[in-house]
Design goal:
The protein has 11 helices and 4 strands. The protein is an alpha+beta fold.
Length: about 290
Protein backbone atom coordinates (compact mmCIF):
# COMPACT_ATOMS: atom_id res chain seq x y z
CA UNK A 1 0.00 0.00 0.00
CA UNK A 2 1.69 3.21 -1.21
CA UNK A 3 1.15 5.66 1.65
CA UNK A 4 2.85 8.54 -0.15
CA UNK A 5 0.71 8.12 -3.27
CA UNK A 6 -2.48 7.84 -1.20
CA UNK A 7 -1.51 10.95 0.79
CA UNK A 8 -0.90 13.04 -2.33
CA UNK A 9 -4.23 11.84 -3.73
CA UNK A 10 -6.10 12.83 -0.54
CA UNK A 11 -4.46 16.29 -0.66
CA UNK A 12 -5.27 16.83 -4.35
CA UNK A 13 -8.95 15.84 -3.96
CA UNK A 14 -9.29 18.00 -0.84
CA UNK A 15 -7.83 21.02 -2.66
CA UNK A 16 -9.98 20.27 -5.68
CA UNK A 17 -13.02 20.53 -3.41
CA UNK A 18 -11.60 23.74 -1.90
CA UNK A 19 -11.57 22.32 1.62
CA UNK A 20 -8.96 22.98 4.29
CA UNK A 21 -7.37 20.24 6.39
CA UNK A 22 -9.25 21.64 9.36
CA UNK A 23 -12.62 21.37 7.60
CA UNK A 24 -11.98 17.73 6.67
CA UNK A 25 -10.81 17.00 10.22
CA UNK A 26 -13.96 18.47 11.76
CA UNK A 27 -16.17 16.35 9.54
CA UNK A 28 -14.31 13.19 10.59
CA UNK A 29 -13.94 14.09 14.26
CA UNK A 30 -10.12 14.02 14.14
CA UNK A 31 -7.40 16.69 14.37
CA UNK A 32 -6.02 18.59 11.40
CA UNK A 33 -2.61 17.14 12.35
CA UNK A 34 -4.00 13.69 11.48
CA UNK A 35 -5.02 14.93 8.02
CA UNK A 36 -1.57 16.46 7.53
CA UNK A 37 0.04 13.16 8.55
CA UNK A 38 -2.00 11.24 5.97
CA UNK A 39 -1.31 13.74 3.20
CA UNK A 40 2.44 13.70 3.89
CA UNK A 41 2.50 9.91 3.59
CA UNK A 42 3.46 9.38 7.24
CA UNK A 43 0.42 7.28 8.02
CA UNK A 44 -2.93 6.00 6.81
CA UNK A 45 -6.46 6.60 8.13
CA UNK A 46 -7.77 4.09 10.63
CA UNK A 47 -9.92 1.45 8.94
CA UNK A 48 -13.01 2.87 10.65
CA UNK A 49 -12.36 6.26 9.00
CA UNK A 50 -11.79 5.10 5.43
CA UNK A 51 -15.47 5.06 4.44
CA UNK A 52 -16.30 8.43 6.10
CA UNK A 53 -13.21 9.98 4.45
CA UNK A 54 -14.33 8.72 1.05
CA UNK A 55 -17.79 10.21 1.65
CA UNK A 56 -16.27 13.59 2.50
CA UNK A 57 -14.01 13.55 -0.57
CA UNK A 58 -16.71 11.98 -2.80
CA UNK A 59 -14.47 9.15 -4.01
CA UNK A 60 -14.69 5.36 -3.83
CA UNK A 61 -12.72 3.26 -1.35
CA UNK A 62 -11.05 1.57 -4.33
CA UNK A 63 -9.84 4.95 -5.60
CA UNK A 64 -8.57 5.96 -2.15
CA UNK A 65 -6.52 2.79 -1.73
CA UNK A 66 -5.24 3.10 -5.31
CA UNK A 67 -4.27 6.72 -4.77
CA UNK A 68 -5.81 7.78 -8.07
CA UNK A 69 -9.05 8.23 -9.99
CA UNK A 70 -10.12 5.02 -11.76
CA UNK A 71 -12.04 4.33 -14.94
CA UNK A 72 -14.15 1.30 -15.74
CA UNK A 73 -11.27 -0.48 -17.47
CA UNK A 74 -8.90 -0.65 -14.52
CA UNK A 75 -11.43 -0.50 -11.67
CA UNK A 76 -11.85 -4.26 -11.19
CA UNK A 77 -8.11 -4.91 -11.58
CA UNK A 78 -7.32 -2.39 -8.86
CA UNK A 79 -10.15 -3.72 -6.68
CA UNK A 80 -8.62 -7.21 -6.46
CA UNK A 81 -5.16 -5.76 -5.83
CA UNK A 82 -6.43 -3.46 -3.08
CA UNK A 83 -8.35 -6.27 -1.40
CA UNK A 84 -5.16 -8.31 -1.04
CA UNK A 85 -3.16 -5.30 0.16
CA UNK A 86 -5.84 -4.38 2.70
CA UNK A 87 -5.91 -7.93 4.09
CA UNK A 88 -2.14 -7.86 4.50
CA UNK A 89 -2.26 -4.40 6.11
CA UNK A 90 -5.01 -5.54 8.51
CA UNK A 91 -3.01 -8.62 9.53
CA UNK A 92 -0.02 -6.43 10.37
CA UNK A 93 -2.21 -4.08 12.39
CA UNK A 94 -3.69 -7.02 14.33
CA UNK A 95 -0.24 -8.46 15.11
CA UNK A 96 0.97 -5.07 16.27
CA UNK A 97 -2.13 -4.64 18.40
CA UNK A 98 -1.64 -7.99 20.12
CA UNK A 99 1.77 -6.91 21.39
CA UNK A 100 0.25 -3.98 23.26
CA UNK A 101 -3.04 -5.57 24.29
CA UNK A 102 -2.29 -5.42 28.01
CA UNK A 103 -1.50 -1.70 27.79
CA UNK A 104 -4.70 -1.00 25.89
CA UNK A 105 -6.81 -2.87 28.45
CA UNK A 106 -5.21 -0.88 31.28
CA UNK A 107 -5.87 2.42 29.49
CA UNK A 108 -9.52 1.47 28.89
CA UNK A 109 -9.98 0.64 32.57
CA UNK A 110 -8.43 3.96 33.64
CA UNK A 111 -10.60 5.92 31.20
CA UNK A 112 -13.70 4.13 32.44
CA UNK A 113 -12.89 4.87 36.08
CA UNK A 114 -12.17 8.56 35.45
CA UNK A 115 -15.33 8.92 33.36
CA UNK A 116 -17.38 7.30 36.11
CA UNK A 117 -15.81 9.64 38.68
CA UNK A 118 -16.62 12.74 36.59
CA UNK A 119 -20.18 11.59 36.11
CA UNK A 120 -20.62 10.96 39.85
CA UNK A 121 -19.20 14.37 40.77
CA UNK A 122 -21.50 16.08 38.25
CA UNK A 123 -24.59 14.31 39.60
CA UNK A 124 -23.68 15.26 43.19
CA UNK A 125 -23.25 18.90 42.18
CA UNK A 126 -26.59 18.90 40.40
CA UNK A 127 -28.36 17.60 43.51
CA UNK A 128 -26.59 20.05 45.82
CA UNK A 129 -27.41 23.14 43.73
CA UNK A 130 -31.18 22.84 43.07
CA UNK A 131 -33.14 24.41 41.53
CA UNK A 132 -31.33 23.58 38.30
CA UNK A 133 -31.99 25.49 35.10
CA UNK A 134 -29.53 23.56 33.01
CA UNK A 135 -27.68 20.27 33.04
CA UNK A 136 -25.51 18.07 30.89
CA UNK A 137 -25.35 14.39 31.80
CA UNK A 138 -23.38 11.37 30.75
CA UNK A 139 -19.90 12.79 30.12
CA UNK A 140 -19.65 10.45 27.15
CA UNK A 141 -17.06 12.71 25.60
CA UNK A 142 -13.46 12.96 26.87
CA UNK A 143 -12.07 16.50 26.46
CA UNK A 144 -8.40 17.19 27.12
CA UNK A 145 -7.55 17.79 30.77
CA UNK A 146 -6.67 21.45 30.17
CA UNK A 147 -10.08 22.30 28.68
CA UNK A 148 -12.24 24.29 31.16
CA UNK A 149 -15.28 22.06 30.75
CA UNK A 150 -17.32 23.47 33.64
CA UNK A 151 -16.80 27.09 32.61
CA UNK A 152 -17.71 26.35 28.99
CA UNK A 153 -20.84 24.44 30.03
CA UNK A 154 -21.88 27.29 32.35
CA UNK A 155 -21.33 29.77 29.52
CA UNK A 156 -23.65 27.78 27.26
CA UNK A 157 -26.13 27.43 30.14
CA UNK A 158 -26.36 31.16 30.68
CA UNK A 159 -26.56 31.84 26.96
CA UNK A 160 -29.43 29.40 26.36
CA UNK A 161 -31.43 30.45 29.42
CA UNK A 162 -30.97 34.19 28.76
CA UNK A 163 -31.82 33.73 25.09
CA UNK A 164 -34.99 31.84 26.00
CA UNK A 165 -36.02 34.31 28.72
CA UNK A 166 -35.47 37.29 26.42
CA UNK A 167 -38.04 36.12 23.85
CA UNK A 168 -41.40 37.87 23.64
CA UNK A 169 -43.51 36.52 26.48
CA UNK A 170 -47.19 35.71 26.19
CA UNK A 171 -47.50 34.66 29.84
CA UNK A 172 -46.38 36.28 33.08
CA UNK A 173 -43.61 34.45 34.92
CA UNK A 174 -42.54 32.50 31.84
CA UNK A 175 -39.27 30.65 32.49
CA UNK A 176 -36.91 28.74 30.19
CA UNK A 177 -35.40 25.41 31.21
CA UNK A 178 -32.63 23.58 29.37
CA UNK A 179 -31.11 20.11 29.47
CA UNK A 180 -28.27 19.11 27.19
CA UNK A 181 -26.22 16.09 26.23
CA UNK A 182 -22.70 16.97 25.06
CA UNK A 183 -21.23 14.56 22.51
CA UNK A 184 -17.93 16.27 21.73
CA UNK A 185 -15.95 19.29 22.94
CA UNK A 186 -13.08 20.38 20.68
CA UNK A 187 -10.49 23.10 21.15
CA UNK A 188 -9.43 25.05 18.09
CA UNK A 189 -5.66 25.30 17.78
CA UNK A 190 -4.18 27.92 20.18
CA UNK A 191 -7.17 30.27 19.83
CA UNK A 192 -8.91 29.56 23.16
CA UNK A 193 -11.95 28.89 21.03
CA UNK A 194 -14.01 25.74 21.46
CA UNK A 195 -16.59 23.83 19.45
CA UNK A 196 -19.25 22.06 21.49
CA UNK A 197 -21.51 19.53 19.75
CA UNK A 198 -24.63 18.77 21.77
CA UNK A 199 -28.27 17.76 21.67
CA UNK A 200 -30.36 20.44 23.40
CA UNK A 201 -33.85 20.11 24.83
CA UNK A 202 -35.30 23.54 25.64
CA UNK A 203 -38.76 24.12 27.15
CA UNK A 204 -40.58 27.15 28.59
CA UNK A 205 -43.16 27.00 31.42
CA UNK A 206 -45.39 29.37 33.36
CA UNK A 207 -47.70 29.06 36.34
CA UNK A 208 -51.38 29.93 36.09
CA UNK A 209 -54.20 29.25 38.56
CA UNK A 210 -51.87 27.11 40.63
CA UNK A 211 -50.90 24.90 37.67
CA UNK A 212 -47.58 24.75 35.87
CA UNK A 213 -48.15 24.75 32.11
CA UNK A 214 -45.83 24.42 29.12
CA UNK A 215 -45.60 27.30 26.65
CA UNK A 216 -43.12 26.01 24.06
CA UNK A 217 -40.32 23.55 23.48
CA UNK A 218 -37.65 22.40 21.03
CA UNK A 219 -35.34 19.40 20.67
CA UNK A 220 -32.47 20.24 18.30
CA UNK A 221 -28.78 19.32 17.79
CA UNK A 222 -26.48 22.32 18.19
CA UNK A 223 -22.90 23.28 17.43
CA UNK A 224 -21.81 26.05 19.81
CA UNK A 225 -18.68 28.14 19.33
CA UNK A 226 -17.33 29.40 22.65
CA UNK A 227 -14.42 31.86 22.87
CA UNK A 228 -12.44 33.37 25.72
CA UNK A 229 -12.74 37.16 25.55
CA UNK A 230 -11.27 39.41 28.25
CA UNK A 231 -10.86 36.56 30.76
CA UNK A 232 -14.42 35.30 30.34
CA UNK A 233 -16.00 32.77 28.02
CA UNK A 234 -18.72 33.79 25.60
CA UNK A 235 -20.87 31.99 23.05
CA UNK A 236 -19.90 33.74 19.82
CA UNK A 237 -22.08 31.67 17.55
CA UNK A 238 -24.10 28.51 17.08
CA UNK A 239 -25.43 26.41 14.22
CA UNK A 240 -28.44 24.12 13.95
CA UNK A 241 -29.66 22.09 10.96
CA UNK A 242 -32.58 23.35 8.93
CA UNK A 243 -35.82 21.40 8.74
CA UNK A 244 -37.14 19.32 5.88
CA UNK A 245 -35.01 18.36 2.91
CA UNK A 246 -32.06 20.39 4.21
CA UNK A 247 -31.74 18.49 7.50
CA UNK A 248 -29.41 15.67 6.40
CA UNK A 249 -27.36 18.03 4.25
CA UNK A 250 -26.86 20.44 7.17
CA UNK A 251 -26.08 17.61 9.61
CA UNK A 252 -23.19 16.49 7.37
CA UNK A 253 -21.98 20.07 7.06
CA UNK A 254 -22.15 20.99 10.77
CA UNK A 255 -21.31 17.82 12.71
CA UNK A 256 -18.34 15.42 12.58
CA UNK A 257 -19.10 11.91 11.38
CA UNK A 258 -18.62 10.34 14.82
CA UNK A 259 -21.11 12.78 16.39
CA UNK A 260 -23.69 12.26 13.64
CA UNK A 261 -23.39 8.50 14.09
CA UNK A 262 -24.22 8.80 17.82
CA UNK A 263 -26.99 11.33 17.25
CA UNK A 264 -28.73 8.93 14.85
CA UNK A 265 -29.81 6.95 17.93
CA UNK A 266 -31.00 9.90 20.01
CA UNK A 267 -34.64 8.78 19.77
CA UNK A 268 -33.82 5.20 20.76
CA UNK A 269 -30.97 5.30 23.29
CA UNK A 270 -32.91 7.07 26.05
CA UNK A 271 -31.39 10.51 25.48
CA UNK A 272 -34.66 12.38 24.89
CA UNK A 273 -36.39 10.60 27.78
CA UNK A 274 -33.60 11.49 30.20
CA UNK A 275 -33.43 15.11 29.09
CA UNK A 276 -37.22 15.41 29.37
CA UNK A 277 -37.25 13.86 32.86
CA UNK A 278 -34.45 16.21 33.88
CA UNK A 279 -36.44 19.26 32.78
CA UNK A 280 -39.54 18.04 34.64
CA UNK A 281 -37.48 17.90 37.83
CA UNK A 282 -36.16 21.40 37.19
CA UNK A 283 -39.69 22.72 36.65
CA UNK A 284 -40.99 21.15 39.84
CA UNK A 285 -38.10 22.53 41.84
CA UNK A 286 -38.35 26.02 40.35
CA UNK A 287 -42.09 26.51 40.61
CA UNK A 288 -42.49 24.41 43.77
CA UNK A 289 -45.64 23.13 42.16
CA UNK A 290 -46.59 20.13 40.14
CA UNK A 291 -46.02 19.33 36.49
CA UNK A 292 -49.07 18.86 34.25
Amino acid sequence: MNQEKIGKFIASIRKEKKMTQKEVAEKLGVTDRAISKWENGRGLPDLSLIKPLCEVLDISINELLSGEKLNQENYNEKLEENMLVTIDYTDKKINKTRKSLVVVICVIILLFLSTLTLYTIDMIRMKQNAPVLFSTWGYEYAPALNIPVEEINNTIKNYLVEKGDSKEKYHDGLKTFVSMRVYLLQEEKKDEKYNVYAWVLEESYYKEDGKVLQDSGSSIPHKFTVEKIDDRYEVVGYEIPRDGNYYLQDMKKIFPYSVREDMDFVQYDGTITRLSDDIKEQVKSYFEGYYE
